[in-house]
Amino acid sequence: MGKYVDSFQMFEAKYHTYTDYAKSGSKWGTTEELEKDALIKVKHIIPGDWDQVEKSIKSTEDQSDDKKGIKFEFKLKDGNTIHLFKTGRMRGDWEVFLNKKKMKDSATAYQTLLSKLPALEAYLISMKGFDSTYQYSDDNRAYKNGSAHEKALRQMYSKLSTSDKEKAYKSFKDRYNTTQDLNDFTGA
Length: 188
Hints:
By secondary structure, the protein is an alpha+beta fold.
């Protein structure tokens, strides 16, 4: 019985350290490379235009140590704090904490931050990432994701005020060249 427990513990998750990278002889894993990888991860978490989200980061701090592992803290201008812990050898393998609360994944952290934005801003950000051609996809995952995104957009749109609905409609119409009338528009 102990033999199996010991084997299982070998796969137990732990945070990677800079020493782990140095010992493995890895050519990837310098402080600078890991900080860039962490920044890319955070840019995927923060809602907004890819080129603009970096401006919402107030400060970045490497809080790593050899006992606790590689950890980066990103303080955002809106008061939120994102901590990333390196969990795997691959780029993008980070455990995400938002305001000291562990997130299931980076998508959950993104949705949590998105929900804190004003309703119209959240709709417009989400709308910019919408694939309006998902119905034509041969890939079932792309179809399911597009369908779920469309449903989410409609739900967000339904909660907007009348004046915000007009702004959302105009933005959607301009972006996707829809000929649908405002009275018939449901958000996607």
